[in-house]
Amino acid sequence: MNLTGIIGYPVTPFSQDNKQIDLDKLGRVIDVLLEAKVDAIAALGSAGEAAYLSEAEWRQVAEYTVQHVAGKVPVIIGIAELTTAQAVNYAQHAHQIGADMIMLSPFSYYKLSEAEIFQHYDTVASASPLPIMIYNNPATCGVDMSPAFMLSMVERIPTASMIKESTGDIQRMHKIHTLSDGKVPFFNGCNHMALEALNAGASGWCTAAPGLIGDKPKQLFDAIKQGENEKAQALFYQQYEFLEFIVSSGLAAAVKSGLALQGMDAGEPRKPLLPLNEQEQQRLQGMLDGLA
Amino acid sequence: MNLTGIIGYPVTPFSQDNKQIDLDKLGRVIDVLLEAKVDAIAALGSAGEAAYLSEAEWRQVAEYTVQHVAGKVPVIIGIAELTTAQAVNYAQHAHQIGADMIMLSPFSYYKLSEAEIFQHYDTVASASPLPIMIYNNPATCGVDMSPAFMLSMVERIPTASMIKESTGDIQRMHKIHTLSDGKVPFFNGCNHMALEALNAGASGWCTAAPGLIGDKPKQLFDAIKQGENEKAQALFYQQYEFLEFIVSSGLAAAVKSGLALQGMDAGEPRKPLLPLNEQEQQRLQGMLDGLA
Amino acid sequence: MNLTGIIGYPVTPFSQDNKQIDLDKLGRVIDVLLEAKVDAIAALGSAGEAAYLSEAEWRQVAEYTVQHVAGKVPVIIGIAELTTAQAVNYAQHAHQIGADMIMLSPFSYYKLSEAEIFQHYDTVASASPLPIMIYNNPATCGVDMSPAFMLSMVERIPTASMIKESTGDIQRMHKIHTLSDGKVPFFNGCNHMALEALNAGASGWCTAAPGLIGDKPKQLFDAIKQGENEKAQALFYQQYEFLEFIVSSGLAAAVKSGLALQGMDAGEPRKPLLPLNEQEQQRLQGMLDGLA
Amino acid sequence: MNLTGIIGYPVTPFSQDNKQIDLDKLGRVIDVLLEAKVDAIAALGSAGEAAYLSEAEWRQVAEYTVQHVAGKVPVIIGIAELTTAQAVNYAQHAHQIGADMIMLSPFSYYKLSEAEIFQHYDTVASASPLPIMIYNNPATCGVDMSPAFMLSMVERIPTASMIKESTGDIQRMHKIHTLSDGKVPFFNGCNHMALEALNAGASGWCTAAPGLIGDKPKQLFDAIKQGENEKAQALFYQQYEFLEFIVSSGLAAAVKSGLALQGMDAGEPRKPLLPLNEQEQQRLQGMLDGLA
């Protein structure tokens, strides 16, 4: 599987009372991403509020996404569970429904040791034949994995073949590249570092941004690949404030509010998460106007 | 409710296959704490692996603990859930089964704003009449609450009346004391800072240590209250390495391994958590021997 | 030398044009500290703006302080120089003029390795027979020394016999006590952690506070030693806001402004340091009133 | 003055006994940089051990550098002094001897407020007509200046026209670019982030690396400007380990040891700084061999 480009993250639309998933709207959200020329769809990531779904809801979103994408692009299923048993459970499900890949991160209450994290990945890998993207995001998952440790898992676990790095520290990418002699593909998960990550050799950019700003991320990716550096810089700075905003105000809340501003109601994020307040909505509207 | 002294935290014993809770053993674990002269029992805290239990298991532990303690000391129920809906659900259950208090912390995937945290506490408080101890532990819960913010919740939410601080920063306690004119009781949740916290005015010390070292924590508490400062210092430094060890190696893993070393099998922690390795077990054995 | 209690830090009064040292006023500043019952005087520390003095001024302050104190209490000379050569130079001078001890810290532009720091201490120790207090204050000196490393210097360098810890991390003191079996005296350099440091076994408290609030620090020290814990706590919280303020607003600026408010003009700190602004002065006045 | 490209930093060679500056060798060090096609020479930076020189030595290096460069490229003089008076003194000297620009950073013992830092820059700017590059390097100077604050100085101080950023946080550069609408030139001072900084719009790269690896940095600069992104990435990763090494092991020590390995004795760094140990020298030799 030679994944490259923009990996789009759909939000999970809820019903008015926040209690159910609105699958029709999820379909429209996915369509928006496909129209924005994403090269893959990653369901049940941070933007998808996977951590706030019941098991039944989680399965529903996974299944629906695979069916709706219908092979147009690969589908990656995010798994970030507190217990290894539940991660195994979900990984098996992802395979059964025909997903193409798992994006697996530890999720911690207790800080996990490398031995514990390795065991987690290894157990999940043994339970499902799907390729695994190792995903490091200490800001949400509460545990940080070093480049050297992640690469040791790539070496030891046959299906673990890629890395997504979201710390926002460009040196991590330098380390991944250097320590693996450029052989292990890595992806950028830090929106407002996309320019640098792609220049540093990232195979792609994992982002919820196309849900609101169309193919601008894809244009940036293409400009860099074609050596149009002035254009790339201009495209990046055009998106920069927006990219930083959706991260700092919470991806799910920001994208859902942005979709509403664009006329597509995707419901509110699930409590305790709150939608953007009025001031934030106005700021977002201004940025979207500037990018339209 | 005038809570003071040592608040003991039971671990949650699992069956051999890690899949079920062994209630008989939980009873014995609670008895050990009561024999260690704890002034309250806090079920479903970090040490109790609450984050790794299914809903059914969580309810089982809560109910059994209240029944087994049987009014000898107050029972506090820890609640640290990702969604507000589930926290409400558990808070109602805690009240129904006759618990005395809730120890409520946010648990985050997305970083939560103060508005989101306030809403979480306020909604839970509205759903259950039990007194609430606001619990701040960014290392496990992924979100940090300042003294000023926690005190504002004490002021605005009638049943929120106490604070448990586990950052390990003694200045937080100074702030709580100073900003509240000494009127809001606070508890120490950082084992290896117990001496200072109690000297700085903490009403009590929340700890799993009595499960392994009997009434040593209670002796320390008493020495400080009686102004026996040399004795307090000696008692603290006697326990210090042990206290730091059980935190740094993971409370559940450390206490369960320690219980096994003392002849009481409480099973293993739930995966991805691992039991202490052999070297750690030997180190723990040495410390327990020194404290016996 | 059995140093214990309160070690007082004089500020360095400058002339109106900031260009010369006003020795008469320095004498009065020292007298204020002696009246506040300090157990030693430490010249040329942070409060004394040692880093901002020329070599001639530095020598002038050192000599005058030893003469003025005239053996009433021990005099400690602070040395924090960028080059080892200059530190040696000053250490020899401290001995020649009859000071009792050196308080030696590294001062870094480049981060220093432990080998570099050790060499620095060892070379200075070889050049002067005075006892050395190892002083760790990364916030000002730009380099952090671990308890284990400082204790290794105590072991290897015969005249290095004490430690001053100013990180504000109480665990450092626990480590010093534990790793040295309570045998290496340590002093607290973090004003707003004085209560805890003394309870954790610190031999004394290094502070500029007596310059403005008289023997309140000494009273706190005595209360703890006598096991009057409620009194100690009350004394500490009475001073707490003040202690935190003089640290956060800069010791030299704060103490000089406070002295002016109390009618003793000690000049301004040396540029780029600025005196307290009006708002800060009013806040300080309020705190001094409350402590009078 | 339209500065762009590679700004080279000479080390300061000392005599065998570490007590004097060897000007002949300084000349050779400067020649090496000029042969490496640097676009400017920056004397008395971190690499030049400015912080460890006496005033007489400092003046000697400044004067000699201007004379030796003799207008081939612009000469920038670094000034990082603890007192504003000394910074003024040096800034006047830099102008008198015919330097082209000052690179000015605060250097702190006490943490400085923005008011103090502004006053420092403003006073120096009033004392010398030379253009000022605002230099932010908290790791050495002990104080951090935000992009917004530095840009406010550019706006308020007529001669302050450029920024050098050395935190290693790429977001700082994004902020400088965004907040100034791309109008304030900024330079990269973090060697192992050169690829990203230049892609993010940095006008140049301040580095001591050409002293050891010739025009490799210049080649990287050119490749990026010409949109040869694969070549740029290859050139960067070729240098990466070396760039990280000279920073982490101390620029002055690393470059001096490297020069010695290449047959040009530049003496040792000044104590407490130590030369590279044997192991480090071997590692450096290996990297230099790989880059030759």
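qc> Chain B has a mean pLDDT of 97.
qc> done
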